[in-house]
Structure formats: C-alpha cells, structure tokens
Amino acid sequence: MVESGKNLEKIIEKISILKNEIHQSGIAGLTNIHKHCENLIKDLLNIIYDLNLKNLNEETNNYPGLDLGDIGKSISFQVTADKTSEKVNYTLNKVLRFKHYVTFKTIKIFILGSKQGTYSIANIPDFKFDWQKDILDFDDLIKIVQNLDPQKIKQIVDLFDNELQYAINRFQDEVKIIQTKSLINIEESISKCNLKYYEHFSATLRFSGRNITVPVIFQTLSELQGNLLFKMFLQIFNPIFRKSSSSQEIIFKDVLRDKGVINHFGESILKISPNTITYEYAQYKNEATLMTNLDVEIKPLLALLMMSSRLFKGNKPQIEVHIDLSTNGELHYMNQPGNLFSVEHSMNSFILNPEIFQTSKVLHDLEIENIMDLMEEIIHGFSIKEAYPNTSKPFMQLDRTNQATALNYINTQLA
Predict the structure, then answer these.
(1) Short-list 79, 13, 67, 48, CA closest to 141
(2) Alpha carbon 315 to chain centroid distance?
(3) What pLDDT, on a 0 to 100 scale, did the predictor assign at position 173?
(4) What gap in Å lies between CA 86 and CA 65, rounded to an integer?
(5) Which helix (H) or strand (E) holds 39?
(6) Rg of the chain's alpha carbons, rounded to an integer?
(7) Which residue has better confidence, 273 or 210?
(8) How many separate helices (H) and strands (E) can be counted in the chain?
(9) DSSP 203-251
(10) CB 3.0-4.6 Å disulfide test: which of 201, 204, 359, 382 passes with 322?
C-alpha cells in the first residue's frame, strides 16, 4: 500500500508537469498541442479504461473530428487543448457529418488541461452525448487512477517515465520553431516603404517519415514548371527570383516593391530546406483597412501540398502544416467571383479575429476532405465585424461541394 501511495503521488506530479508544459506551449502559440502527446494520452487511456485505442489518422484514412478509437469496444476520443463549447460542438458536427457514430457508439472528448465548469451543447439527434460524463480532463483521470489496482498504477508510472520527457521535448522543439524569426522582416520593410499597416502570411510544410533533401524537393518542383496552373499558383518559383542556392537551402525572393497602386507594397519569399518548405507573403498600406481574397496566400500553399504526393513516391505522406496570419490593422476578407475559396454568399464584412491567427495540422494523406478541413480552419479565423439584420452565422462557411470540385481539378493538374 505504501508503494502504491508513492506511485500515485508520482502520477499526480507527472500530470502536473504535463499540464504546465501544455499551458506554457499554448501561451507560446503552439496550436497542435494534442499531436505532440497523442500517443501518451492514448496509452494512458488504454491502461485506465482497459481499451485498445489506436491513432485513427494512422490506422484509417479520413477521420476528421476524432483522434483515437477502439473499434472493438466502439469508443473514440477527440484529444484537444481547446476546452470551449464551440470546439466541442465543432467536433460533434464532424461526427455527424461523417457518420462516425455508426462505428463508434461512444464519443468522448479529452481536454488537455482543465475543462470548463459547464458546456452548452447543440441538440444531437443521432447519438447520445452527455457533456458531464463524456468530456474528460486530467483531474477526472486522477480521480479514476486513485481507485485502480496497484499493478495498473505501476503501469502508468512506467508510462510517464518512458514517454513524458519525449512529449515535452516535442513541445519545446515546436515552440522553438514558432519563435524562430520569420523570413520577412516586417519592421524593416515598413521602414523602407514608409507605410504603416501590414498583413503577413506564413505557411510551413514539414515532411516526416523519410529524408527529403533540398535537391529532391527542388527537382520535384522543377518538374512542374511547364504546368500552367503550377506557374499561376506558385509564381515565386521562378529562376528570376532565386537569390541563393546550396545543398542545404534555396531561397526565392520577390523583393519589396509597389503593387501598381499608390501606397501599396508587397513582397514574398520561398525557402527550401531539408524536409521543409516555407512560403511567406506580406502587403503594406497606409490605411488600417487591408483587403484580401486569400488567393495570393493560399494558392502557393495548395500548389505545394498537391505537389507533395510526388515526394513520397506512392508511400503514405505525413506533412505538418503550420499557418500564421497576422496584421496590425484590420484585415478584411474580400468575397469575389472566381476566388479560390468557395464560401457561402454573405453581405457581411468579415475581418481577421484575432489579429494574430495560427493553426497547425498534421496530414497523413492528401485527401480533398482533409485539405478542405484545413481551408475551413483558415476562413474561420475571420468573423463578422458588423452583422446585417436576419443574419446568424458569425463565421464564413465553406461551400464544400463547390470547393471539392475546384480542389479535385487542381489535384489532377498538380499531384
């Protein structure tokens, strides 16, 4: 009994360390926290509940909204650091849309941190979800662990001893990347063009699972140079913009210049490094109101994503995508015919909110549904500035049917 008591104290201590690391990572801007401790949480839940949870994104393609699942016992978990009712409802809507409740009769959500005291959950007609029982956090697990047999408590101690430091290292490595100085020096460019307000977009793709060198990435991109759509989407990949080349790094730069309009400047950079491609774009104006249709930001990202399947040569890809969009003004989404984003028509004015928007996603395949999920996360960074009468949706909505048609065409041209 004494040993079990000591082991229980160790578990509580380890969980406190993990919760603090998650909290600090969130403050530093790490958005895909769950991906860095997913396996640790999976193994922990397996021990506590006698389950055989698997990582659904690795086991089966296309499981938006769910992370872990035990098909035999028909139970699944979404693991998230977002504790809000909005996040819970978003997950449940995904479960409904993709009919995951057919495979998994029990849907649970595990909050990395501390859950809210109460939740407002939308009506769910197709399956039961009781937020008081089905939303869990670390405090709930500690209560359960206290009543486990000594053998299981020892298993949990061993799990934390073996896996906790690995998860923390992944957090810290990711935070270092986030805090790395961007390729575009915003302050320097503002000084050069003497314009006050800016929009800055950054997209980083990191390839895992195999070693992909700079020459291989460059050669793969070069194979598409004769493709008209590729040229339109990734205009910066042009010899006239290449500024430096080595076996470890190639940089293309469209230098700061006016955009053909008074007091409106822009610039962009593409950097290729081992296993990584980064694209950045910035625009500058004297007016606090900046406009974007997101084409110049997202078209290069889509071209790079669609091309990525060539890098894995038929093998299952694993691509970490990190998006950063920021402004010191008021960035408005401009809905026009022919935009890359197919959004449901609205007379509302949508602005970037918050002014620094970040999202991260790990793609285990390049299915159109997963790419649309990423696009949807980006447009959900924009919300209504001032609602018109009889409008209820505070965010833009992706027209997934039309968007899928557009993306399928792009994919046939670039994949």
Answers:
(1) 48
(2) 22
(3) 67
(4) 13
(5) helix 33-49
(6) 23
(7) 273
(8) 13, 16
(9) EEEEE-SS---HHHHHHHHHTTTT-HHHHHH-TT-SGGGEEEE-SS-EE
(10) 204
DSSP state of 398: B
Longest dimension (CA), the chain: 77
Contacts 24+ apart (CB under 8 A), 218-226: 218/250, 218/272, 220/307, 220/310, 220/311, 221/272, 221/307, 223/310, 224/307, 224/414
CB distance 299 to 340 below 8 Å: yes
For the entire predicted model, the pTM comes to: 0.64
Owner of token pair 């995951």 = 100
Query: Which tokens in the block code for residue 362?
Result: 């790990």
Spacing of C-alpha 22 from chain mean position: 16
- Classify 389 as helix, strand or coil: coil
- d(Cα 293, Cα 97) in Å, to the nearest integer? 27
* Sequence-ordered list of residues with C-beta below 8 angstroms from that of 395, at least 6 positions apart, any chain: 350, 379, 380, 382, 383, 384
Contact 107, 79 (CB under 8 A): no
Mean pLDDT, the chain, whole residue set: 87
User: What are the extents of the domains in the chain?
Assistant: 2-176, 186-414
Three-state DSSP state, 45:
helix
Residue pair 163/147 in contact (Cβ under 8 Å)? The answer is: no
Instruction: Give the helix, strand, coil percentages of the chain, each rounded to 5.
Output: 40, 25, 35
* Segment 331-390, tens digit of pLDDT: 999 888 888 999 876 667 889 987 778 888 878 888 899 899 999 989 988 888 766 655
Instruction: Give 109-140 as a DSSP string.
Output: EEESS---S-------SSS---HHHHEE-HHH
Encode pLDDT of 166-186 as tens digits: 777 777 766 665 555 689 999
pLDDT at res. 38 = 83
Helix (H, G, I), strand (E, B) or coil at 328: coil
For residues 165-197, b (16+ Cβ closer than 10 Å) or e, as one string?
A: eebbebbeebbeebeeeebbeeeebbeebebeb
